[in-house]
């Protein structure tokens, strides 16, 4: 993948997942829209843009070019190891380039010396950038890079429901810990990295010299001084769809088993019960779901397993998609209704029964998952499912 040699830009954005890259594109679209409105207000000549009337489709893709000037930005992809995530990121990178954005693909985890080379290459541009955009404030890699930056503006775009926990921890002045991690002891690596994490927390606290903005589709209560801009998925809706709707019901998978929150067998039983109750025929796999679990979903439950090449918001918007989409508590119960606004698709969410949790699940897990479900303003909440009986 070709990359720009020149990293100099007013804005540097760092992404590690396809969803983060999608939300950087949404943020850039929102910024460009604001600049276009400002030029119109000042009487400058420009071509008006209406989200409802996008420009012509580009050849060879479903993306319609929006006549909006991209910001002075370089998007740096800190490539992960996971093959599914890498594949989706490469597809998202193609879409970003189609929209006129500059990207640099960094094999940031590709060997013993890779982190040192990556940090060395980014240190100068980081110090020069006046704005830094990040997608995962919990990432140690991102926290390390923030310690080298001196931006006047810091923007956090959504990394899914983790944004809700990040904002809550920032408001309470707590150290950043992912919601599904046990909140007990701290390992040696946590202790060693504590000064960097504390520095990142200070960077994410606004002051007289630095503004902090949150670009999100999640329901959050930000701490004082943090500006919130709502992500309504305007670029996604302008660039794709409207989708063709099928008569069937689709089910969205989660990685709750892989993160150690939900027991594998209980999850399979819950998926089977939910599919049977609502006539679901397709299962959209999360990029982190294990191949073994997906084989069991296809073989035992008879669902067609779909491995999306792009974030589900784009896949659903391109279609075909079921008229009803079922999900356990996850990001999509907040984002899909926005991405599919104006269509007849209904999104429904099923709570996680406490008895499905593993014995190693964080004490915060049940409360967090309930908050994800309860705060989904545009998703229909399904009646609580009875806990599937354990098999012996």
TrEMBL record:
This is Glycosyltransferase. Residues 36-66 are annotated as: Disordered. Residues 36-50 have a biased composition (Basic and acidic residues).
